[in-house]
Write a structure and sequence with these properties.
Distance between the termini: 77 Å
Oligomer: single chain
Number of helices: 13
Shape: globular
Order of helices and strands: HHEHHHHHHEHHHHH
C-alpha cells in the first residue's frame, strides 16, 4: 500500500509538471529558448531530402546508359561486387537467381522453391527506386554520395542489364523509370497487407501457421574458427559510423603494451584497416589484389616510391597487378596517403 501511495504521488507530480510546461508554452514563457538554433534554409532541407519513394517522388531528372554504367562499375564497384555482379568473398551477389520467366511474371520462382543457393539483390527488390536510392546515398563504399546523377542512373541500368532485364543499348531516365520498374523480376513479390506494414493490422507472428509444425532447433556444424576471425583485419573499423550495421571486433584491442603497442589512428596500419583495404589485400598473402609485402618489394627501391604509391592509392585503377580494378581513395588526405605509402614500403621482405 505504501509503495502504491508513493507511485501515485510520483504520477501526480509528473502530471502537474506536464500541465505547467503546457501553460508556460501557451503564455509565451517558452520564448526563453529564442536564439537556440534557427530555421533550416531551403538549400539545407534540399541537401537532406534526397530519398526517392516507390512512386518516384524525389527522383531527380537525368539519365544514364548501360555503356556508361559499365565504365563506372569497373572503376568504382567491381572491386567489391565482382565484374559481373557475382561479388567476391566479402559481399552478397547482386545479380543471379532470376530467369526470363521471372521477368515476365514479376515473381521470382527460386524465392518460392528455394532452388537458388542464396538470395541476390535482383531476386528480392520489388521497386527500382529502392535500388536507385541506395546507390545514390550509400555507394561507393569508400565515398558515399560521390556519384553524379548520371552515374547513378547508369549503374542502375548496368545492373539491370547484367540481370537480363534491359538490353545493351538501354538508357535509364526519370522518364522511363516506371516502365522499367514494371520489368523487375520480383515486382509482384512485395506484400503489404499484413501487420508489419499496416499500423491497424494484426502482427503476423500470431498467425497459427507460425506456431505449429515447427522445425527443430538448428544445430551449428560449421563456424569461423578463432584463428581466422581476423583474416580481413578488424571488421569494426571497416564499417561506417552511420546506419544500423556495426562490425564485430575481430582483432584484439589493446591499450598499449610492450608486446602489442597501441596503433595510432593516423598510422598506416590503422588507415589500412579502417578503409577496408584488408578486403582485397593481405599483408603477406595475396587476396583479390597483391599482398602489401609484394607491393613493397616491387617499389621500395624506386626513388619516387612513396609519391608513386600515394598517387596510385588516390587514383585507383587496374592493369598493374591484374584486371580487377581498385577503387579510388580520393577522400584520403595527403597526410593519410603518405602514411599508407610509408607503411606499405616498410613491409618489404
Amino acid at each position: 500500500m505504501e509503495n502504491r501511495i508513493k507511485l501515485l504521488g510520483l504520477l501526480s507530480h509528473a502530471v502537474l509538471a506536464l500541465l505547467l510546461c503546457s501553460l508556460l508554452w501557451k503564455t509565451g514563457a517558452a520564448q526563453a529558448f529564442d536564439g537556440l538554433g534557427r530555421v533550416a534554409t531551403s538549400d539545407e532541407v534540399k541537401a537532406w531530402d534526397i530519398d526517392v519513394r516507390p512512386d518516384f517522388v524525389g527522383l531527380p531528372k537525368g539519365s544514364g546508359s548501360v555503356a556508361k554504367g559499365m565504365e563506372v562499375w569497373d572503376a568504382q564497384c567491381a572491386s567489391c561486387h565482382g565484374v559481373f555482379g557475382e561479388s567476391n568473398e566479402i559481399f552478397t551477389p547482386i545479380v543471379g537467381g532470376t530467369t526470363a520467366e521471372d521477368i515476365k511474371k514479376g515473381r521470382v520462382q527460386s524465392l518460392k522453391d528455394g532452388s537458388a543457393p542464396q538470395r541476390t539483390t535482383l531476386m528480392k527488390v520489388p521497386t527500382l527506386s529502392t535500388l536507385w536510392d541506395y546507390i545514390n546515398r550509400a555507394m561507393p563504399w569508400t565515398a558515399p554520395k560521390s556519384l553524379s546523377t548520371e552515374e547513378v542512373y547508369a549503374v542502375t541500368a548496368y545492373i539491370l542489364n547484367m540481370g537480363g532485364v534491359v538490353g545493351d543499348d538501354f538508357v535509364l531516365s526519370d522518364q522511363n523509370m516506371a516502365q522499367t520498374q514494371a520489368k523487375l523480376p520480383n515486382r509482384n513479390g512485395m506484400q503489404t497487407n499484413h501487420g508489419m506494414w499496416l499500423p491497424s493490422g494484426k502482427p503476423d507472428v500470431k498467425e497459427p501457421r507460425c506456431m505449429s509444425n515447427c522445425k527443430p532447433d538448428a544445430k551449428v556444424i560449421s563456424f569461423l574458427p578463432d584463428y581466422a576471425r581476423d583474416a580481413h583485419g578488424n571488421l569494426k573499423d571497416q564499417n561506417r559510423l552511420v546506419g544500423p550495421v556495426r562490425g564485430v571486433v575481430t582483432v584484439a584491442q589493446t591499450s598499449g603494451t610492450a608486446a602489442a603497442p597501441k596503433i595510432s589512428t593516423h598510422s598506416g596500419e590503422a588507415l589500412f584497416n579502417a578503409n577496408g583495404c584488408v578486403a582485397c589485400h593481405g599483408v603477406d598473402n595475396k587476396k583479390l589484389g597483391p599482398s602489401v609485402a609484394a607491393v613493397a618489394s616491387k617499389y621500395a627501391d624506386q626513388a619516387d616510391a612513396k609519391a608513386y604509391l600515394a598517387g596510385k592509392i588516390r587514383a585507383g585503377g587496374s592493369g598493374v597487378w591484374g584486371e580487377m580494378p581498385m577503387p579510388a581513395q580520393s577522400h584520403l588526405s595527403e597526410e593519410d596517403l603518405n602514411a599508407l605509402s610509408d607503411w606499405f614500403l616498410s613491409k618489404k621482405k
